[in-house]
Design goal:
By secondary structure, the protein is mainly beta. It has strands at residues 3-5, 13-15, 31-33, 40-45, 48-53, 56-64, 70-75, 81-86, 99-103, 108-113, 120-125, 131-136, 140-145, 151-156, 161-172, 175-184, 187-196, 201-207, 220-225, 231-236, 240-245, 251-257, 263-268, 273-278, 282-289, 292-300, 305-310, 316-321, 325-330, 336-341, 347-352, 358-363, 368-372, 377-382. The strands form 9 sheets. It has a 4-stranded antiparallel sheet with strand order 3-4-5-6, with no helix packed on it.
Length: 389
Amino acid sequence: MCFTVQGEEDGDLPLELEHMLGFTGRTRETLLAHPTMAEVYIKSMGSAIVVGDLNDPHQQEFLRGHDMEISCLAVAPSGTYLASGQVGTTHRKGYGAPAIIWDLPGRRPLFTLQGHTVSVDLLRFSPDEKFVAACGQDCLLHIWDLATGEVLLGKKFPKPVALFVWGEVSTAGRRAKYDVCIGAHGAMDVNELSFDPGRQQWTLTPQPMAVPSSGLARDYLCACLSSTGDELIAGTTVGDLVVFKLQPQKVYRASVPVCSGGLRAVVAGMDGLVFCGGGDGSVRKLRGDDLRWSLLTEAQVEGAVTSLAPVANGRELLVATAAGRVYRMLTEDLSCALVAVGHTNKVSCVAFGTRSDVFASGTCDGNLKVRKYTELEIISRLPKLIHRP
């Protein structure tokens, strides 16, 4: 998003990007809340990353390093690192899809990690922030060392990995061992990531997950660990919440119907709470454990939920949808306020009227929005226009 201004004396001068409006919601996990700073959020728009302030809509900073649309984001538990992945570039041969690791407090890139093509679908930091894992449409899994940027492990799967969750970290000699839950091609596996001294390399060792021999065929979309860490809670394309017990045994326990359109985002809260975002635009608050689950309250937003992020104060969630909406939602009763609205298709026209502080923008699919420039808010939305020849 670089602009130039023409002038006789100054020539072609670059214009600094001042503000970005809206949110596209095209892919999942492209809106995050900072894990330790309650007022800070992170979102992607096109090839840029926006670091903004929830309490001041005019406050934004931009991270630029990608040359194509950003497809996923992840932030480390301490907020020290940010990872971003993109779709495969069309500017070079091979359709490479790099991931960038950012020093978030310093707002600068640390590493550009190569190895994926087509698209990076998800990124995950290890709990101790020593490693970052990436999975993509090329069916590859890569794990990199955050200290050096070197690849520790690469593995090819028959189909793209749908979910990757870091589990328990245990000490094993000089190096730690990690439990890793991987959902791919309709199966859920628990693996042990450990360093093999004999081969002098890191390895993934499968550990069997006991599941029913029939009746549990699921494609997974999202997952998280329970607040106690002993359960894996996964969302599926059919809209149910699948519960796996990780300790002391690795075994399937329950399937809980939650929504339609696929369960696309799941977040674990304290005291057995779980927040679920569905493809039908529903956000539901559940409480449970093992076989016992109950619905506490629910809310409806516009568009399929694509991101669900807990704010650091513990009292709010950020909810993003495929309709370009971003909401602030209270965890107590799921009451929400709309904080951002954006176009979800290419903007084809922009125009000012008789007032310099109000402008309208339209997209190629016939959507019009009127905004007030000073408050950066939408004051009117027009129904989709249908072209009749």
